[in-house]
Amino acid sequence: MAFADIDVSALGPIPPAWGWRRPGSGRAVHVTAGTEYQATTVQAAGLYPFTAGSGAPLLGVPIGRHQLWGEVVLLDPFEWLNAGLITNTGVFVLGQPGAGKSALAKRLVMGMAATGAQILILGDTKPDYNRVVQHLDGQVIRVGRGLDRINPLDAVRSAPCCRG
Asked: What is the pTM of this model?
């Protein structure tokens, strides 16, 4: 469709270049140029928020991508505590069956062990974490009638990955 094919009469009256001559109609005798500002990209990010990231700290184990910005989301409760972002390192994973709760927990365990954190998995009822513990050269203690016993007064040797 070419410009000549448009029916101009259907658009209604066309205002003059400076607007209609009546109060409240937006008429301007002179239109000044807008104010020009100069800033770095860091400073201008506050004026145009879509250039800024999600604000999640870049510390920890990669666990996924931010839904709006697409940047990598990292989780490390110990670093977040040191940075003053949280007051407790506890992590509570909640979700529908099959949503990936165990996969997230295993990813956190492996990533945190790689940073030198000492991992304790208490009460593995399924058992989901046997292979993870064995991969980290840890010790699986099966507790129950006729199985292993735990003596809290025994000295336990540290796994090679967790020695300081």
From this structure: 0.55
Cα–Cα separations (whole angstroms), residue 36 to 28, 29, 33, 43: 21, 22, 9, 14
Which residues is 65 bridged to in the sheet? 72
Q: How far is CA 121 from CA 68, 77, 161, in A?
A: 33, 16, 15
Going by C-alpha positions, the residue among 84, 88, 135, 93 that lies closest to residue 110 is 135
Partnered with residue 62 across adjacent β-strands are: 74
pLDDT tens for 20-31 read 777 777 666 666
* Contacts (Cβ under 8 Å, ≥6 apart) of 117: 78
3-class DSSP state of 148: strand
Separation between Cα atoms, residue 101 and residue 1, nearest integer Å = 55
The whole-chain average pLDDT of the chain stands at 76
